[in-house]
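Let us practice reading a record.
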Amino acid sequence: MNICVFLSAADLDERYTRPAREFAELIGKAGHTLVWGGSDTGLMKVVADGVQEAGGRLLGVSVEFLANKARPGADEMIIAADLAERKKLLLEKADAVVIMVGGTGTLDEATEILELKKHGRTHKPVVLLNTAGFYDGLREQFRRMEAERFLPRPLAELVFFADEPAAALAYLEEQAAGQ
């Protein structure tokens, strides 16, 4: 399975890097491919290292203005012209999406895939990995959107919230088996 992971390229505290590394190792050990932003810095590097060291494959999609930060030694690296093309390519190459901790770029990517799902433009499973409660506020906001009928589909059809890496991968594998 090609698992796209949206996440930060920032250097982060161990409360975020440890679970990210754990998830990466699960991806690699299961023989899956990581599809990610291609960066060899911060949390993106932690995840790429974990996948590669556990035997998984790396498919990166970087962008021209960040190409100098692209990971050397990835199995495949695509350089997109801009962020919009990068996001499009990441989603095209993925069978499933996991949203990990991140900033505005990660939030942009997350809302795009959820909007596509909302409109039936994709049926790929999406997991929001809520490490250390990072997305508790966002989960509450989504619940409010659902309760007040801003979402035309149940929230559970759009995204699965996982608090632990093993639950995230188990959900994706269960969804893949059911297809």
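A brief commentary: The longest strand covers residues 57-63.
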